[in-house]
Amino acid sequence: MALLELNEVTIRFGGLTAVDRVNLQVEEGTIQALIGPNGAGKSTMFNLITGIYAPTEGNISFGGERISGGEPYRIAAKGIGRTFQNIRLFSTLSVLENVLIGAHTRGRAGLGGAVCKYLPWVRREEGELQDWAVQCLKQVDLVHRAFEPAASLPYGEQRRLEIARALAIKPRILLLDEPAAGMNPQEKMSLMHMIQAIRDTGLTVFLVEHDMKFVMGISDRIAVLDYGVKIADGTPLEVRNNDRVIEAYLGKGAGH
Amino acid sequence: MGAALHNFVGGMDPYFLQIIVNIGIAIILALGLNVITGLTGQLSLGHAAFMSVGAFASALLTIKTGLPFSLNLLLAGSFTALIGILIGFPILRLTGDYLAICTLGFAEIVKVVFLNLDITNRALGLTVPPAKTDIPMPIVVWICALLAVVAVTFVQNSRFGRALKAIREDEIAAESMGINLTLYKLKSFALGTFLAGIGGALYGHFLSYINPSDFGFLKSVDILSMVVLGGLGSVPGAVIGASVLAAAPEFLRFMSQYRMLVYGALLVFLMVFRPNGLLGGVNFVDLVLRTLGKKPHLPLRTGQKEE
Questions:
Q1: Does position A112 have pLDDT exceeding 80, yes or no?
Q2: Where are the domains of chain A?
Q3: Shortest CB distance from A147 goes to which of B159, B296, B301?
Q4: Cα–Cα distances in angstroms (integers) from residue B20 to residues A10, A61, B27, B301, in the given order
Q5: Tens of pLDDT, residues B102-112
């Protein structure tokens, strides 16, 4: 059984059908990509999976459990970490604090624990959270920035910090919304290695990306969305040679 | 011990004592609002109304039950927090201006209710009997203020406080990190209004007279000015903001009728030259460490084999 399953998922905004009866299965331990022209509904798909939108029709299940229609914070706690297309860091807080907030669901100290911070279990938990946050920062090579405000980081590092923050949830699946956007070629290369290393730890990665070279180089499977409809799904080679994909990207008659 | 404390306090200049107590109460109120507006980013313009809930609750407890003052304070604070939760539940779904207007509306409702209830003696206000405690009021006020400073400082650097700051920075991202927005906003509101209730209770018992009109919109704006002046989200900022603004009208008294003019001008200048407040955006612990020449170090505990 696939880790993440979308079943006939549809969402309409008024008269616009942004995502139209999409079926998709993301297998555990793979890198799945979702591509498509601008406005194809890729980010909407991510927002559907993470509960920011509820599907008008169809359902989404994660690990065999239905998650569609649930609240975003509950869905996140089930093990779905995500990054955002237009970076959404907690910008005045430090890099470390950002990742600690990502680790929120891994602790349980509340208001009481905050006021009684010298209780042994509260101290132990806080120590564990901090250790875990440092480990996540290591995975994206940002430990040396731990005490700087997130907003002061260069763009590429902010993207990596978003990944570290999402990893801190200890997710089973990581959703990356255009992780390579705005990066230079070297940064893209090291990001590719980083994502592959994350996959190799057993995590499933689901990413939306525009950069074809990036997607073709990294993905195990690629799904293609056009005007909210899934037009192709397969290995990078299959997708590259798919007529409908070529048509969606280059227009009718291209290449023939 | 009670007698010795009374002698100590009794030996102080009453005028000076009053300023000191005003500052202590202002610190508690400002810290409460700092949790709601500074940490969680929810603009509230009704803090004085919660203060009045605490003041009346505590005054009535003293009149009707004669409970010891420590218990009275806790009950008054908890009752205010309960009202805060009840009010907060429907309105904390709103953001920004809408929330501010709702808190403003709520504050007016509270005032009108207290002006019309028999139990609060309508527009005449309540005379508050002396608090049931051996410790003189000024000392009680400052013990509460210190406890509030410690509690809010602890909160700020905890898992709970980080969740509040995440909500302030970006609600969508916070929710995607598994933070229940409604729950955390309510808890923040509960903590902030609890402190407002304590502040109100102390205020009533120190002045020994309360009137619903004392807790109007201007009082709420006063408290908000303290928080903004000190720097939103900063505990030392709230303490300094509260101290400066609670004492300023007294120190400027020699200017007689020009007093409020200068007070207003001071606020304007401050906002022009330090828009984030005196200590806004300054990590106080960090600042102290850096002044002492120490760098913050990573929380790598023993048992970690790497590096």
A1: yes
A2: 1-79+172-256, 93-170
A3: B296
A4: 64, 61, 11, 43
A5: 999 999 999 99
